[in-house]
Amino acid sequence: MRVAVAGGTGLAGRHVAAALTARGHEVVVVARSRGADLLAGGAGLDAALSGAEVLVDVSNITTASGKAALSFFDRAGRNLVAAARRAGVRHHVVLSIVGVDRVDWGYYRGKLRQEELVRSGAQSWSVLRATQFHEYAGQVLDLVPGPLAVVPRMRAQPVAVREAADALAELAVGSPAGYAPELAGPRVESVPDMARRLLRVRGSHRPVLALPVPGTAGRGLAGGALLPDGPGPRGTQTFDEWLAEQARRVGRPAGRGVPAHR
Fold first, then answer.
1. 232 strand-pairing partners
2. What pLDDT score was predicted for residue 259?
3. CA 241, CA 243: separation in Å to the nearest integer?
4. For 171-191, what is each residue's pLDDT tens digit?
5. Domain 2-250 homologous superfamily, CATH
6. Which DSSP category does 1 fall into?
7. How far is it, in rounded angstroms, from Cα 82 to Cα 100?
C-alpha cells in the first residue's frame, strides 16, 4: 500500500514512516524538504499524493503563538484535504491531542481546526488523540530559553513517540475508525517535575519556575484536562525509562529515581 506521511521528517513523522516501512508499505514523505509545501498554495502536494491510498498527517508547528498555530493548521489542513480529494486518497489519518477540546488554548484551537477540516473532507477519516510525548518537557524548556526555565503548571501522561507511531501505522492500514480510542502513556506526571529531571540529565542548573496559566485553560492544564477520561490503549515506556535512554546517550547519570538501565 502507498501511504503518504505529511510531516514525515518531523519527530513523529520519522517514526510513522519507519513503522509503515517495517510493515512492508511504500511510504512517501510529504515535506517542504522533499518538494511539497503544505502552506505555499500546497505546491508539490498533487505529485506527492499521486497514487497514495492513505494520507497520515503528523505535520506540526513549534510556536507559543495561538494565532500562528491556528493559521498553520488551517492552511495546511485545507491544502491537504483538497490535494487528497484530487488524488483519490481513500483514508485520511490525523494525529491529535487528548483533551484538545477541553482546554481553550491557542495551539489546541489550531488542532481542533485540523480535526474539523478532516472530518468535513471527502475522504473517510481517522483521528488518534494521544497524550504529550516524553520529549514535551524538552520542547517547553527550549521554547523559552534563558537562565530561568518557565514551565506551565500542568499534568500529563506522556507516551513514547515510537508507541504513538506504531498506533498510527496500524490505524492507517486498517479500516477508517473515526475517533480512535485515546492513546496515553503508563503514568501521570507533573510537567514542571519532568522538566527538572530532564535538566539534571542535561547537566543544567537552570531553576524551574512552575507558572500557573491564567484563566480556565490554566485550571484545566493543572487539573488534568489533558489526561484521558476513559479506557484506551496505554504505552509501556515510562518517562523515567525514556530519561535513562537520554542519559546513556550523553553519558550522564540518570539521576535519583531514574533507572540506569531498562
1. none
2. 33
3. 5
4. 999 999 999 999 999 999 999
5. NAD(P)-binding Rossmann-like Domain (3.40.50.720)
6. -
7. 24
The sheet carrying 2-6 orders its strands as 26-30, 2-6, 54-57, 91-97, 124-130, 178-179
Task: Report how far apart, in Å, the C-alpha atoms of 154 and of each of 24, 146, 224, 238, 246 are.
Answer: 39, 21, 7, 18, 23
- The amino acid sitting at 81 is V
Rounded distance between C-alpha atoms, residue 63 and residue 39, angstroms: 16
Query: What does pTM read for this prediction?
Result: 0.92
Furthest-apart CA atoms within the chain: distance in Å: 54
Inter-CA distances, 203 with 126, 134, 244, Å: 41, 18, 14
Spatial CA neighbour of 93 closest among 66, 123, 63, 137? 123
Q: What percentage of the chain reaches a pLDDT higher than 70?
A: 96
Q: Residue type at 182?
A: E
Q: Give 202-242 pLDDT, tens digit per residue.
A: 999 999 999 999 999 999 999 999 999 989 999 999 999 99
